[in-house]
Amino acid sequence: LGAAMSKNNRLSGEEREALIERIALQLLQGEISQGQALQEFRKKITAMNQSDYAKLTKTSRKTVSEVENDLGNYSSDVINRLFKPFGLKVGLVPASARLKRRTLKVS
């Protein structure tokens, strides 16, 4: 997995990690959608097209496209496969903006 990704982009390990953290934080703070996050990750971290990314994550190009466009209702298993290359998985986050901000400050 690492070799497939590093072959397709020119980010250093530190740059890749910083970008993952920034996008994940934007997602947690509700600044971007899950689909927007996946598209950012795929394009900026892997530099793969949807078809190649689908093969990597053992999903279909249609699934990648629909998730990136916030369409469909996919299982946590599928979402986990799509986000696994970036060290992320489905989880619970506070619904209240206030609690979310307090939780993120503590972390």
Features:
107 residues; mainly alpha; 7 helices; 64% helix
Would you mind describing this structure in some detail?
Residues 3-8 have low confidence and may be disordered. The N and C termini lie far apart (29 Å). 64% of the residues lie in helices and 0% in strands. Helix 4 (50-57) crosses helix 5 (61-68). It has 107 residues and is mainly alpha-helical. The chain has helices at 2-7, 13-28, 34-46, 50-57, 61-68, 76-83, 97-106.
Explain briefly what this protein structure is.
The chain is mostly helical and 107 residues long.
What's the layout of helices and strands?
Elements (H helix, E strand, L loop, with lengths): L1 H6 L5 H16 L5 H13 L3 H8 L3 H8 L7 H8 L13 H10 L1
Helix pairs in contact: 2-3, 4-5
Helix tally equals 7
CA-based shape: globular
Strand residue content:
under 5%
Gyration radius, to the nearest Å? 14 Å
